[in-house]
Amino acid sequence: MPDLTLGMTNEETAYAKINLALHVRERRPDGYHRIETIFAFLDQGDVISVEPADQLTLEISGPFAKGLSSTDNLVLQAARRLAELSGVAQGARLHLDKRLPVASGIGGGSADAAATLRLLNRFWGLDHSLAALADIAKPLGADVPACVYSRTCRGTGIGQDLAIIAENELQGYAALLINPLVAVSTGDIFAAWDGIDRGPLGEGTVMAVARSGRNDLQKPAVALVPILTDMLQMLDGSEPIMAQMSGSGATCFALYDTLAAAAEAERHCRQATDNIWTMKGEFR
Ligand SMILES: C[C@](O)(CO)[C@H](O)COP(=O)(O)OP(=O)(O)OC[C@H]1O[C@@H](n2ccc(N)nc2=O)[C@H](O)[C@@H]1O
Ligand SMILES: Nc1ncnc2c1ncn2[C@@H]1O[C@H](COP(=O)(O)OP(=O)(O)OP(=O)(O)O)[C@@H](O)[C@H]1O
């Protein structure tokens, strides 16, 4: 795997996360759930940039900046944690271009925190490996270690025990993301899970595991956000390889053989309704 910490720019993409499958196995005594998931990452997302400064600060712009706090933001939480653990005395003037909808099941804040760790590791001249950054990321959220790698991987435990999958498995495939502009709380959706263990992920290629898999959070999310049924029907109508909800929702995804097919499906969805956010891309 190439070392993502090596790079020259003062910018980093917070890649959108997709759970190609998400099996919830058990509620643990601490309230978290044991899951089995396939994480995959689009080549699109939020963008974080940095300039030299004495203090740590954050400005937010972009289509989903509104309503996000710039003081307890996950970007600053990640920056403070990295500075503290690495004995960094300098600051950083951070900027977040918020392009992904907030609380939408595609990582969002988790991807931002992870991208901040990669960016500042470089900017402050630290030499943490990706594995070390993933470890540092653990307390920031269940999804943050996977977002540090931003590579297709299998996640177990609470989603933080990661096995990286061969890089080329999703090469050439594309995805369309569609969100009904309804924010969904991850904790609420896990709490509404029916407690039934429907079994582990399958074995085989990523595509085979994804196609034979499920998202166990889809049912509780549809109960809370009924318009998700329309989103999934719209995607099914575009004859994708598969369509499903990502994470705790409400973003749904569809997979295609080409980016052109994803673009065609996006046009159809946008003709059908204005009240959606969409993003298409290829896999990293
Ligand atoms: C649904 C997924 O996005 C799938 O990748 C993740 O499991 C959630 O990751 P996340 O948003 O980074 O989650 P966190 O911010 O750590 O947790 C938010 C809340 O979700 C619930 N939570 C999260 C992860 C997990 N394995 N079990 C849980 O029950 C907990 O109630 C927790 O308080
Ligand atoms: N940089 C950030 N971007 C988005 N949300 C943030 C950020 N920093 C803090 N938050 C808070 O985190 C909460 C969860 O948002 P986020 O977008 O990470 O959820 P999500 O898309 O459901 O993620 P996941 O797929 O990991 O469950 C939001 O309600 C928001 O208040």
UniProtKB/TrEMBL annotation:
Keyword terms of this UniProt record: ATP-binding, Isoprene biosynthesis, Kinase, Nucleotide-binding, Transferase
Residue stretches making up the GHMP kinase C-terminal domain: 210-271
Xref: InterPro entries: GHMP_kinase_C_dom, GHMP_kinase_C_sf, GHMP_kinase_N_dom, IspE, Ribosomal_Su5_D2-typ_SF, Ribsml_uS5_D2-typ_fold_subgr
Enzyme class: transferase
Pfam families xrefs: GHMP_kinases_C (PF08544), GHMP_kinases_N (PF00288)
Catalytic residues (positions): K17, D143
Keyword Transferase: yes
EC number: 2.7.1.148
Binding site for ATP: P101, V102, A103, S104, G105, I106, G107, G108, G109, S110, A111
The reaction(s) this protein catalyses: 4-CDP-2-C-methyl-D-erythritol + ATP = 4-CDP-2-C-methyl-D-erythritol 2-phosphate + ADP + H(+)
Gene3D superfamilies with a match to the protein in the record: 3.30.230.10, GHMP kinase, C-terminal domain (3.30.70.890)
Keyword ATP-binding applies: yes
Associated pathway: Isoprenoid biosynthesis; isopentenyl diphosphate biosynthesis via DXP pathway; isopentenyl diphosphate from 1-deoxy-D-xylulose 5-phosphate: step 3/6
Domain GHMP kinase N-terminal as annotated: residue spans: 73-150
GO molecular function: 4-(cytidine 5'-diphospho)-2-C-methyl-D-erythritol kinase activity
PANTHER family: 4-DIPHOSPHOCYTIDYL-2-C-METHYL-D-ERYTHRITOL KINASE, CHLOROPLASTIC
Family: Belongs to the GHMP kinase family. IspE subfamily.
Record's function text: Catalyzes the phosphorylation of the position 2 hydroxy group of 4-diphosphocytidyl-2C-methyl-D-erythritol.
NCBIfam families per UniProt: ispE (TIGR00154), PRK14608.1 (NF011202)
This protein's name: 4-diphosphocytidyl-2-C-methyl-D-erythritol kinase
Gene: ispE
